[in-house]
Structure prediction request, 216 residues.
Amino acid sequence: MNPEQLRNIIEAALFAASEPLNAERLQALFDEEQQPSRDTLHQALLQLQQDYEGRGIELKEVATGFRFQARQEVSTWVSRLWEEKPQRYTRATLETLALIAYRQPITRAEIEDIRGVTVSSNIIKTLQERDWIRVVGHRDVPGRPAMFATTRHFLNYFNLKSLDELPPLSELMDIDKINAELDLREPGGEGSGETAAVALAAAMPAYDPAFEPTDA
Prediction:
């Protein structure tokens, strides 16, 4: 199989897929005798990324694989395809999510200590229902409280490949702008949340770089 044919197959598969595709899933598209190596796949993906430079869409690698998505620069117009207004989140919800993102794994009591107020059960429930956070264990203290961490879906949603791509605290911005940024993605608009992820940095201490979410 020549490189151009390989790129065409990968391109079509990524456009047809409803979720990001990783190297393993892309390799599974081919018969065993035609299956490209990881290096060959990587080179084909790099070439595709170059082919789409300067276009309205881009090939982006996120936590669970590669996907095509609208570029942030055109999201204002693309988002008008959907009349339904996306869900808005309270400041408390977004601050809780930011704390989990930067301090994971973290318990509810630790979040409350930092914010200085009680964390509503509805906030935790909302974040879990969005599949943005999950329980990853229990702190070895009396009561063994649950520890929360972000998921790979959180990384995908905010257009991140890993936690290392969370914006530095020097890029803080007003957390009240987060909902406006989130407006750019729903429905079906994952992948334009880089600026929103920047907003998540509002007033949060650094996260533990040794911890990475492991779920799908």
In short: The first strand starts at residue 57 and ends at 62. The chain has ten helices and five strands.
